[in-house]
Design brief:
Number of strands: 7
Radius of gyration: 21 Å
Helix content: under 10%
Strand order of the largest sheet: 3-7-6-5-4
Largest sheet: 5 strands, antiparallel
Structural class: mainly beta
């Protein structure tokens, strides 16, 4: 990858951040040599992965002072719990401490939820 991104304005006038990437095929030459000039590919890049990682939706996180926190369900009451997060995507965050497997958290908590607010699970 190039060391820095650049700004590109799309045909619709939308500013996009881009990074030039050079890829190489890991399959043998026979598997991809029939591709022609300017062949387009869609690439999914994995920057980090691990097994058996505790995660929460990013939408459950909020700032409490200088640390991250979530509202966890404690017998129908919201309990603010500080959490330490590790790797994060736009959808999920790795939880390093503060929660255990099976804890249920409030997703997209409103400003009306405070410590000990009554909460109930909604249908999905």
């Amino acid at each position: 990858m190039d060391p820095a991104g650049f700004l590109k304005v799309s045909a619709l006038g939308i500013e996009e951040q881009r990074v030039r990437v050079t890829i190489d095929f890991s399959d043998p030459l026979q598997a991809w040599s029939q591709l022609g000039h300017d062949y387009r590919v869609v690439v999914h890049v994995t920057t980090w992965s691990a097994q058996d990682v505790l995660t929460v939706p990013v939408s459950a996180l909020f700032r409490n002072g200088d640390q991250w926190a979530v509202f966890a369900d404690d017998n129908g009451r919201a309990r603010a719990k500080p959490v330490q997060i590790g790797h994060r995507s736009n959808r999920f965050a790795e939880v390093l401490s503060g929660l255990t497997s099976g804890d249920q958290v409030v997703v997209r908590p409103s400003d009306r939820i405070v410590d000990e607010s009554r909460i109930a699970q909604r249908g999905r």
